[in-house]
Amino acid sequence: MTTANAYPVTQTIRTIGILGGGQLGMMLAEAAMPLGYQCVFLEDNPECPASLYGHVFHSDQLADFIAAADVFTLEFENTPTSTVEQLTSVSKSGSKQGMFPPLIALDIAQDRLKEKQMFNALDIATVPFMEVNSEAELKQACEALGLPIVLKTSRGGYDGKGQFVIKQESDIKTAWLALKDAVSGKGSLTPTPAPLIAEGFINFNREVSIIAARAQNGQIRCYDLVENHHHHGILAKTQAPAVGTSHLLQQATDAITKIMNHLDYVGVMALELFVTKDARGHTTILANEIAPRVHNSGHWSIEGAVTSQFENHIRAVVNLPLGDTDNVHPAIMVNVLGQYPDISAVLNIDGAHYHSYHKAERDDRKIAHITLMPNDVTDLESAMAKLVAVLPNKVGLDKEYGNIDTHSNTADAKAKNDVLEDNSGEADSLAELSPKTEKAKK
């Protein structure tokens, strides 16, 4: 087993420097404080969410930011690699304690082609894909992969941006015109010239993700698989644990373990996955992408796990033992987009936990999240219906929960559990989930 603590240890860590000051940086700082660590941030918005918890340095003040911190990490994978290179160099000189995660993880996560190529090299299955540099190559990809396909920028883009679904031949020219500037580096799609990637379209049942933490000594701890639902390309809801996926947990933990060890990774990583059928009709998973940081689909862990993803990331960065990742209670996390709800109405729901990001309201902006953990797990559906009713932006959840009886939902929950019966014949259900789910350990 490799270790990533290759930096000279010359001082005690007191302050953690975080690249980025959004809500992830804010929640990392919240997790660091009880452990005795302060955080500072490199962020061009002085009123960012993280400003509540530490000094914010502008990108022009990189030298001051470096001087203020003992060890470094990040909250956003599109951080310029040049900045990470500089922090890595400073750390290797012995004046700082390290830059985690490593530069290679950032380089691969910022390039969808490199990412898919890494997955395949590690024998981790993905959708079929091809590199595209011209309209002619796009036509070849459509013929080889078969329509429909998803055309994406290989660099840049998030929350559904920088993508085009090609359903028929007449869409090819439109898709090329929409995304071709990424190949030359023009426009706002990507700051760096990079090819497009064409991905074969698959019929998948669900989108799930697994989050894991890797320590500097190589220890890895994995959280439960969770199920994610998106609205207009933005994560709307995460259910933890994902019902009916116990037979897929080992496959997922094996995949993320391979990736983290391959990258000599330190910190928390998320691996997004599609649940689908293989050629023999067996349920399997396909890797979609990694996020080399704490992840939106892990926010439930603040209340729902023994040790949150944020605390485990801090522990890894400062070289402390990792904490238990067991799920202590089934939970559903919902993103608040665009407009804040009445906090009293939210907290009037049993088991609701509210996290504001202290951001100004703006369409489709992530401004808060709410985690539901009612004491009786059979009340989870009813609690969701109550929450959806008070959300100004219902992120499409009213279609799923709008007709649920908020006073008695036992029949509704049972019906939903029947639909989510485990394909392997092992029937998981909301009602059967214990406070501490059995899981693969690494």
From TrEMBL:
Occurrences of domain ATP-grasp (ranges): 116-318
Domain of life: Bacteria
Positions bound to ATP: 112, 152, 157-163, 199-202, 207, 230, 288-289
GO biological process: 'de novo' IMP biosynthetic process
Keyword Nucleotide-binding among record annotations: yes
Pathway assigned in UniProt: Purine metabolism; IMP biosynthesis via de novo pathway; 5-amino-1-(5-phospho-D-ribosyl)imidazole-4-carboxylate from 5-amino-1-(5-phospho-D-ribosyl)imidazole (N5-CAIR route): step 1/2
Gene3D superfamilies tied to this protein: 3.40.50.20, ATP-grasp fold, A domain, ATP-grasp fold, B domain
Family label: Belongs to the PurK/PurT family.
Function: Catalyzes the ATP-dependent conversion of 5-aminoimidazole ribonucleotide (AIR) and HCO(3)(-) to N5-carboxyaminoimidazole ribonucleotide (N5-CAIR).
The protein's assembly and partners: Homodimer.
Protein name: N5-carboxyaminoimidazole ribonucleotide synthase
Organism, as annotated: Psychrobacter piscatorii
Gene designation: purK
